[in-house]
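Dear Dr. H.,

I hope your travels went smoothly. While you were away I took the liberty of generating a structure for the chain from your last submission, since the lab meeting agenda had it listed for discussion. I wanted you to have the full record in hand beforehand rather than looking at slides cold. The sequence, exactly as received, is reproduced here:
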Amino acid sequence: MGHLYQRGKVWWVKYYVNGRPMRESTGTTKEQEAGRILKAREGRAAAGLPVIPRADRIRYDEAAQDLRDHYRATGSRDLAEAEGRLAHLDAAFRGRRLASLGQADVTAYALRRQGQGAANGTINRELAVLIRMLRLAYESSKLIRLPTMHKLKEAGPRQGFFEREQFEAVRRHLRPDLQLVATICYQLGWRVRSEVLALERRHVDLEAGTLRLEPGTTKNDEGRLCYVTPELRAMLAAQVERVRALERKTGRIIAALFPHLQGARTRKPGQRGRVVGEPMRNFRKAWATACKAAGVAGMLRHDFRRTAVRNMVNAGVPERVAMKVTGHKTRAVFDRYHIVSPGDLQDVARRLAGTIPGTVTPRGVDGRSVSV
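The corresponding predicted structure, in token form, is as follows:
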């Protein structure tokens, strides 16, 4: 027959498996909760089911490695992105007993990250990784119970988007290949780094006028095929020609649609910087400079996704079709990206003034109609 006892404020359980005594920490200071854990352990032992030995000794480090192995085996998450989240968690919880983690630790972690300047949304993404780690440990019988962890309240979703004039102003201050990147993002709403900059020439069909993303290369793992506008087709043709000219100049085959057109010819060991012909990974500085010159400093490239959604819906494109183009898998996220501007609201008033019987269009003092 098992029983409960305390070490400090934490309750421990003692029970028997095949006549052998087993002792484990419940990780809780509540006797009632400890009693439920004891009954569950005795029930598993009586049924001949596996019992977790010494679960209180499992450390965060082991659980973190299990999570990395899980991501690597299943491909359910980008490893580079996950490592960015885990780096902060490792610094806070390395060496800790997994069973000891709870809400108090989450609160302390959140305060620490806020002190480092992290936004609540960023902290919540990191906590989501921690919660997934604990659940995986629980499913692997390395944790007796799942602790309750509350996330932080986040700020409302960003509302930024580009009006046509703003987009044109920024585009004028970018070099030709980056003008194409911006135009693809503005018209199709594709993600800059993972989708547009990752394009290869084989993804462009100038004759059919299409751009495609291969299955497994997008965030939702679904492929996409989009027909482009005449403007975009002409810009794609010019970019393909630029890459061909670079091939003739370097004598190398270049698969990327957006390679570095200038830079070092080769990369020496330990050398950093751009190498001509290698795929472009980012252009943060060029983007910030263009936005500042255009008078819209602070605009994000991700604002193009909201812009594309808004433009397509306002142009009468069915929402399911627009979701296929932008790669939004759920309606909830798509709706969050469909931003309504003051101009859209003014347009409602103008339409109502012209269509509702008995509505009088406002007149100015000179008798001419005025905008509503």
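Two observations you may find useful: The chain is about 50% helix and 10% strand. The chain has three domains: 3-51, 57-139, 164-337.

With kind regards,
E. W.
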